Amino acid sequence: MDMMQFQRQTTQLAMTQRMQESLRILQMSNADLGDYLAAQALENPCLEVRVPEGASVAPPLPSRGIQAAVDRDAFATVEGQPPSLLAHVEAQIDLAFFDPGDRRIALAFAEALEPSGWLGAPVAEVAAAAGVEEDEARVILERLQAFEPAGLFARSLAECLALQLADLGLLTWELRTMLDHLHLVAEGKLADLARRCDCEIEHVRENLALIRSLKPKPGEAFAQDRTPIQPPDVRVLRGEDGWEVELTRAQLPRITVAEAGSTGDAATDAWLTRAQSQARWLMRAVERRQATLLRTAACLVRHQSAFLEQGPRALKPLSMEEVALELELHPSTISRATATRLIETPRGLVPLRSFFSRSVASDGPAAPQSQDALMALVGEIVAREDRSRPLSDDAIVKQAKLMGAVLARRTVTKYREALGIPSSYDRKRAGAAA
């Protein structure tokens, strides 16, 4: 075999240290940004930071660049909450995917995650949303299924349990066969299951004990869309010409850059020049952060104005990719800009990400439909039912169809369970007991 040597030229985006730092600043909350800038001011004599009263600050140290508040309000003393499932997954995506195309597909899968940690959309649908072939999306999914905790991005209960057993190095042929026939376990047909696994019933019971020790919903270990107790980052108000979005600047640290001056020493003057350059870059990075957040919030409000006027039932399908395309930004930038952000609305304080809603395919007149809007519809139908005669899931399907929404029975069951609504049988028993 002849050996040949050749050159190939490729174009690849390399993230510089300042680009990475700029992305971190974008994702910081106002409190974290204040702490970060205060720490930077301790080391940079050209950077002056004024943290708003009541905001969290780094431990006070002598520095002419910091004017920290002494008092703290209630927000500063609240214990931090566990990270959300999406934030946990996105942090792993940042470490595992460097190619922009692969990251875009991975983020599309992350957006399709259910609170349980399972994948809530078919691979073909995620691939279509990311604009790639299904085979390419499957390759990315295999990498995502290696994330911690094991079981994330599973498409079924059997796959979720198989991923956890594989992670433990315990996925044998017998266990794989049992997972493929979990319906026999539910029906109590252990003898049939033993025959399929070519083993004794006692061995089946031992394997079942192992399976029951696993976590069928690994996503439940994370915060489930709990609203953080913190001041809002942006607010939306009704103006003369429609909805107006503005930043809550009272919570933002104020930055000024001091002149470096001249000390007469060349080395010191060079160091001060670099410090001044870094301070100016930080100021521009914070300004870009604010501009990106404001543009993103305004875009979301523009698309979901009906939500502000009518409530969750009026939510329209909207993805991060659509907003990124409109603003000419990367989807990961939109993800960082909206992570942990709160917006003050006439309907109360809500996460900015509640303006996103996954599209649900439908054959009805309202296709495509918003998943959150349909979930809210299920909740409204149950809230209006006769307590003495609770509606079954089939009855809810019929009620939804009369209101112009097309739902499958299994979808109603999934939404009802996600809303914490018991079955019609349990609701009837609860009504009788009351």
Walk me through the structure.
Pfam families: Sigma54_AID (PF00309), Sigma54_CBD (PF04963), Sigma54_DBD (PF04552). Residues 271-429 form the RNA polymerase sigma factor 54 DNA-binding domain. It comes from Cereibacter azotoformans. Belongs to the sigma-54 factor family. By secondary structure, the protein is of the alpha/beta class. The chain has four domains: 18-74, no CATH class; 82-225, no CATH class; 234-355, no CATH class; 360-433, Arc Repressor Mutant, subunit A. 50% of the residues lie in helices and 8% in strands. It is built from 19 helices and nine strands. A four-stranded mixed β-sheet has the order 4-3-6-7, with helices on one face. The longest helix has 38 residues, at 266-303. 30% of the residues are buried. Mean pLDDT is 78; it is low at 55-80.
Widest β-sheet, arrangement of strands: 4-3-6-7
Summing up helix and strand content along with how strands pair, one would put the structural category as: alpha/beta
Q: What global shape is seen?
A: globular
Radius of gyration: 27 Å
Q: Give, in order, the helices and strands.
A: HHEEHHHHHHHHHEEEHHHHEEEEHHHH
